[in-house]
């Protein structure tokens, strides 16, 4: 099943629901970063959460940055997701592995540890909106839902999942259901929604059972005036890094540092944290950067 996002409303527009399948892009991240099982689950959940949060933004080019900074052995997570359906991300320690937790599942919470969740929403102009909340469990879903309730004052239920087998990621995605302001005072509706979401056995078992996003949302909200938008959005792992950007970053180092790289290393190597791509800058490239810097300083 292709990686995709679908949007829906229910309860006469009082409920907003979004579902994503991120199996292929999570597998791509696993391969690119050589992730362990628990690191794959942690990054996959966070990428799904980032895409779900970005889906509510309106302006073309809008993006959400999600940083999870805990004291566990994973060493943190950083994800960049866009309204356009692109996402990228990495973890601090991609090889960390832990025994299963008490429920027999990958111990993402143990890998993340205690700490904070940082969210930055960038709509493409002005100052980005940023907010920080304390981690609730380190399991990502609970933490993002806590952020949405406390920082954005939107009652939210979030279910995320990643299943990693011997052959890689076979199921990944999630559902975000939010009660909008027009219905937030309806305590019965909020309670009903919370009960429905908490009754789910998880997200990946539904995908593994062959359920589509439409079927999952129908099972969840079908008797509450569900309206699924006809357009689905394709999702993909994408990084905007380039050799020109690498040269730009090297140029910032200054003439002396560039000259030192030429003498000691005969060039420079840079690796993109987000996608793992390695760039090689030769001594000729660095020499040209020095020439450019000298020309700029003489004008």
From TrEMBL:
The keyword Chaperone applies. This is 33 kDa chaperonin. Redox regulated molecular chaperone. Protects both thermally unfolding and oxidatively damaged proteins from irreversible aggregation. Plays an important role in the bacterial defense system toward oxidative stress. Pfam families: HSP33. InterPro entries: Heat_shock_Hsp33, Heat_shock_Hsp33_C, Heat_shock_Hsp33_N. It is found in: Cytoplasm. Keywords: Chaperone, Cytoplasm, Disulfide bond, Redox-active center, Zinc. Under oxidizing conditions two disulfide bonds are formed involving the reactive cysteines. Under reducing conditions zinc is bound to the reactive cysteines and the protein is inactive. Transmembrane segments: none annotated. Disulfide bonds join 239-241, 272-275. Belongs to the HSP33 family.
């Amino acid at each position: 099943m292709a990686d995709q996002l679908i949007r829906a409303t229910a309860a006469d527009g009082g409920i907003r629901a979004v579902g994503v399948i991120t199996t292929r892009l999570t597998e791509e991240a696993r391969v690119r970063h050589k992730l362990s099982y628990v690191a794959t689950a942690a990054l996959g959940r966070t990428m799904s959460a980032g895409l779900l949060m970005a889906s509510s933004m309106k302006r073309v080019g809008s993006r959400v940055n999600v940083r999870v900074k805990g004291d566990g052995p994973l060493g943190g997570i950083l994800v960049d997701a866009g309204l356009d359906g692109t996402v990228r991300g990495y973890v601090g320690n991609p090889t960390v592995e832990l025994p299963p937790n008490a429920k027999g599942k990958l111990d993402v919470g143990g890998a993340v540890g205690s700490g904070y969740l940082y969210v930055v929403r960038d709509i493409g102009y002005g100052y980005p909106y940023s907010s920080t909340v304390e981690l609730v469990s380190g399991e990502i879903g609970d933490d993002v839902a806590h952020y949405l309730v406390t920082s954005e004052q939107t009652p939210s239920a979030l279910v995320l999942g990643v299943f990693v087998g011997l052959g890689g990621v076979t199921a990944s995605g999630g559902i975000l259901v939010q009660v909008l302001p027009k219905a937030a005072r309806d305590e019965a509706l909020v309670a009903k929604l919370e009960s429905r979401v908490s009754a789910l056995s998880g997200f990946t078992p539904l995908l593994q059972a062959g359920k589509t996003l439409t079927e999952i949302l129908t099972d969840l909200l079908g008797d509450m005036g569900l309206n699924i938008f006809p357009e689905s959005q394709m999702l993909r792992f994408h990084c905007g890094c380039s050799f020109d950007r690498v040269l730009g970053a090297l140029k910032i180092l200054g003439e002396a540092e560039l000259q030192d790289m030429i003498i000691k290393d005969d060039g420079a190597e840079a690796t993109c944290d987000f996608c793992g791509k390695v760039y090689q800058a030769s001594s000729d490239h660095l020499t040209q950067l020095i020439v450019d810097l000298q020309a700029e300083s003489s004008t």
